[in-house]
Input
Amino acid sequence: MPLLEILARIAVETPADEITDAARAAARKLLLDTLGTSIAGWNAPGVAAALDLVQHWGGRPEATALLSGEKLPLPNAVFANSVLAHALDYDDIHVPSSLHISCMVWPAVLAVGEMTGATGREMLDAAVLGVETACRVGNLYDQRCRGVSGRGFLQTGVVGGFGVAGAACRLFGLDLEHTVNALGLTYSQAGGNRQGLLDKTLAKRIQPAFTARNALWAVELAARDVTGPRRALEGIAGLFPVFIHAEPPTEEELQRKSDFYEIERCTVKVFIGCGGSYPTTLAALELSREYDLTPDKIARVGIYWPPDAFEPNGANLVGGRWKLGPHPQVDAQFSAAYCAALALVRREIKLSRFTDEQIRRDVEVLRLAERVEILEAVDDPPPPPVILPDDFPDHIDKPHLLIVWTRDGRRLRRIHTNRDVLDPKFTPIEVVREKFLSCAEFSGICPRARAERIMAAVDDFENTTECAHFMRVCVTAGGFRSFPATA
Output
C-alpha cells in the first residue's frame, strides 16, 4: 500500500465519532490563536503588498479574506489569510515535527468550509485531521533529519501542505483515490528553504502561505481527475530520499496508535519571534524583575549555549551579535540578544515593542542589545540536560544560560530550556484568550467589543451552521483599500 493511502485514510475516512472532545477543544483554541495572530499581523511589513496583489488580481468570489471581508478565488483567499496568520511569527508551532501548522490548515478549513457550507463541527474535525495528517509525516521527517542533511529546508514548506490538502479533501468530500492524488500533487510542489530566514528577509513570513495555496491547487486539480505521484513519500524521488536522504517511514510507523491527536500537542507562543530565543528571554524577564535591574545597573550581559543546544547541523537562527538591518522587526524577532535586552530594560515582551518604528526609537534597548555577548565558553557551564523520553527533539531539553554582571559586582545566572516555554500545557485557553485580546488591542482595527464577539463565536464554533456568517464576524476593516498601500 502506498504510504499516501495511509494519510488519505486518516484525512477522509476517520469517523467523526472517533475524534475526541479534547482534540476539538484544541482545534478551537488554535482557531482563536490563529485569528488573533492574523489581526495583529495585518500591518506587519510585507503584508499589505501581499493583500494588495491578490486584490489586484481579483477573480471568482469564492472565499472570504479575513479582516477585510472581500471575496477571492479559493487559493488566493487561503494565501492571503495564511500570510496574515504567520506575519509576525507569533502563530503556534508543533514542536515534535517543527511545523507551523495552524497558519496553513485553519485558513484552508475556513475557506473550504465556507464554499461547501460545512458545519462548525465538520470544520473542527477537518482541522484535527489535517493537522494529524501533516504531523504524522512531520514527526518522522524531523526525527530522521536530525544530524543529517536536509536542514536547509523548512519543514513547514516541505511537509505542511499534506495537512492542508487532507483537511480540504475531507471538507470537499473527495474519495480515497482523489485524496491520494491530491496529496501526491501537493508533494510535487513541496519546498521552502531557510535562506530567506537566514538573510532576515520578509520571505519567511509568506512561505507557509505559498505552501497552503499550492495545496489548494493540488486538491482542485485532483478533484478534476489530475493524478499525482502515489509513492510521494517512499519512492526513489520521494520526500524522504530527496529532502533528507533518509529511509522512508514504515506503514507501522505512519499508522501508529496513540491516546491523543497531534493537534493537542501544538504550542501557542507566549512571546513574539523565534522559539530559539525564548529560554534566555524568560531568564532575562525573571532576573530583571527579581533583582530590579535597570540599564545603569548592568555592566555586561552574556548568553551561552552548549555546543549541541540546537538541532544537529541546524543553524542557530537567533545567535550572533545584535545588528540592526533593513527589517528591524525581523532582526529583533530572530535575535536572542535583542530579546534579552528588551526583557531586561522593559520587563515585558509586548507586540508594541516589535514594530520597526519602536525598535529604531528605543535607544536604551538598542544600546544594551549591542553589548550582549555571545559566549563561546563559561567557567561553570550548565549541568548536563535531562532528556525526557518522548518524541520531542532532544534540543528542547538542553539548557540556555543567561548571565548578567552588575556594576556592584554581582554575577546573576538563570538557566531555562525550550521545554520550559514551549510545552503545550503552559498555554491553556485562558492564556490564549489573554493573548487574543492583546493582539486585538495592538492591531488598532479590532475594538474590544469586536474582539469579544469573535471570542464568543469561536467558543460556539462547534454549533456554527454557516461559515460565511462566522467570517463576517471576523471582518475588522472596510476592505483591502482600508489597508495602507505600504505597511
About this structure: Strands lie at 63-64, 71-72, 93-94, 266-267, 298-304, 372-375, 400-406, 411-416. The first helix runs from residue 3 to 13. The chain has a mean pLDDT of 93.
